[in-house]
Amino acid sequence: MELPEPPECPVCLNLYDAVSIIPRVLSCGHSTCEVCIPQLTNPFPNTIRCPSCTQLVKLPDSISFLPKNIDLLRLSSSLQNVPDGPTKVNSQKSPSVSSQIDQSDNLFIRNLWSPEFYLHWKNWVLPSESILLEKHLEIENVLFSLCCGKIVKSVNGSSSLYDRRVLKENWDVGLVKVGVFRDDQCQKEKEKDGSRCNNSCKFVYSYEAKIMKFLFSTSENERDQLNLILNASFKVSKMGRIFGFWCSEEDDSVYIVCERFNRGLEKSMGALENGLLGKVEEQTERKLCAFGMIGMEICEVVMDLHVEGLTVGCLAASCFALDGLSHVLVDFGQIFVMGRRVCRMVAGHNDHEEKPFQKYVFVCPEMLIELLRKEGIKVVDETFKYEVGKGSDVWSLACVLIWLLAGEQFAEDIQGYYDCLFSSVIGQEGCNFVNLYSGCKEKFIASLQMNLASGLVSLRDVLSKCLDIDPGRRPAVHEVWKSIRSLIITPLFDAFPYSQAETVRRNPIYCICLSSLCHSVGNNLKGRHKLVHGISKEDENCDHDAHQDEELSIHGDVVDGVSIGNVKCIDLKAHRDCITGLAVGGGFLFSSSHDKILNVWSLQDFSLVHSFRRHEHRITAVVYVDEGEPLCITADNGGVICIWGARFPFDTTPSHIIVEQKDWRYSGIHTLATSGHGCLYTGSGDKLIKAWSLQADYSLMCTMAGHKSVVSSLAVCSSILYSGSWDGTVRLWSINDHSPLAVLGEDKLGNLGSVLSLAADTNLLLVAHESGNVTIWYDDVLLKSSKVHDGAIFSISKKGKWLFTGGWDKTISMQELSGDGSLVQAIPMGSVSCGSVVTALLYWQGKLFVGQADKIIKIFKIG
Predict the structure, then answer these.
(1) For residue 860, which of 428, 621, 761, 848 is within the disulfide window of CB 3.0 to 4.6 Å?
(2) Which domains, and CATH codes, for the chain?
């Protein structure tokens, strides 16, 4: 027989003994060694939190006043004298929010994303009120243009959603549309069954949930690539910053927000008809130095991209911007837009343009062939197997540099190359692309020779090699950089800021222009057809409606069925006044109302089973108790408590009536709670909490005083009674002796108004306020206070990781509690409009019961 383990202190894990590790018994019944007790968390004077049950217990002035656990010492001594045997260590962790989920909860709401996913991406969500979209474009243009915006509210590290970057008010930003959040499933259900969908269509996704769901809907590979770009934009100083994601409240469009520059390389240099150097006879040392500085910085920017594992695939003059000191930066917003335009052209959407590509856009041969292949257009034979990579950027980089040198003439030559290519492909399938390109390349080199003086042979040769059709034979970017540097200075030491090992440190794993951010837009436009006629025509049988929308869209399902019609809403009508309370037990739903009636509903078919009538005043609270004999207890604002038998068939009269002593100056009972140990608690308008025995005599056990106004809410959890009051505080009381333990919110919450409702679960306390705020406490420490409703919150309900609140603004807010311990966060998922003030909430076995001020009880359940 295996012997039990010797008892040990739950804090220091040392075995108990009678000399140094003496076990002392706390008032909750658990033992801890006297050495560790003074070191335990002491959130309030003369109280500690038991390390075993986390209950708040009173601490005497001296540790010696706590009794020794003699039985534990005897057991420890006897076991430690036994020869050693196998020892097991049983480590228990406090349950996390996510682990406390009943399987039935998933009938109503299902997981959208993992906690790890939320923690990783939440800092990239910009607050909705932080950005003003200044320029609204047509649908066709908004996908292929950089929208203009402005920061209207500063964002700094104090923001809980955005603590990594800082945005200052009045900053100019660029916005690239990446999608639109649309619930197409709801529309389908509405067409099938309008009445059923009307209930579900009331669900409104929260701002943050729209963006998080959009990110979660992308593939893991796409998120990895996107994460690489986001981090690189802040890691490297020569890259324009990407601030995060923003969603327009007008049309639910999701945007990437980028830094916007007023000075671009294309606009700054576009007026130079003969290039930066001018004619050969005008190429002075000053002009060479100017070109050298700009050219070196362009090379350095491209090398920075490669070091971070990124390639662009094709470059344009618009991809580079100039900061306030005229240093070159890469503009990610323009890169996204340029990539989309290139993909749109190849996909056959250039009917309104005279040229295949816009000016100053340089697409390398292998990139062009790859895009044509993706469209099903065969241009070359199978021997052309060059892949898009770092060498592709070298070709485009060389074109940008040659454009700076040669000016408009080179831009015209490039356009002629594109025209020649596409005109050749239109007439025949599988044209000799290599020969075609070789002829164009000779023209490029001739233009370069004509625009460079004889003393620049080295630069001319390097740029000529960059135009080779084989990416493997093109020089590396740092070789181009060295060649340009020689125009300015001949270094004594050949120092190079990027070692060869550094430039190949990370193989390019992401080509921006081939990503879904750029390539998928061209494939999802209305009426898509190929550029090359006779090769791949538009599908004549394609359903026109399938292409009606030209925007990227995603499909969300924050609440399981609420947004897609799988959850139906049942209305229970029998009361004649405002609903004040809901309780479930014994297979029945109990509802109280200001009409002085307690109604009983069947949970099978939701029919009205019985009505209790005895109260002469408005019923304000109801609770269900199942301690031997099932009971339903109601209280009214006249101070009368009625105890009803809750077993079918129901009696018409209460089994017992308690009349609370009531001062005429105060209202009656506002709230009820039970301890589960034969005790009923009432919170009243006289600022007192009273404990009543549920035994035979139903006598008053004690009165707890401390609040300065009406006691509006009570909750019992982990042997602690929580009481909320109109004075804005929450007080904690011991269930064992009803002594006060702590006061929360007395000096930390500011002007949040009265406490109207409470929800407690193990160490977590959620408090609803008159101001519309919900405060989250963990181990009596305030974690967060957030505005959830536009008006008072009358009811709050927690089940597992889901939190529901309802109140004056006639909506139910749904939040997901994510994280463990002090890292718990409430993620807003969305809201449901109810059409009336929400006065009571109850979540039970996948069903949400809602009591309203318009006398109706709504039940949301799986349809």
Answers:
(1) 848
(2) 1-85 (3.30.40.10), 113-259 (3.30.200.20), 265-508 (1.10.510.10), 576-705 (2.130.10.10)
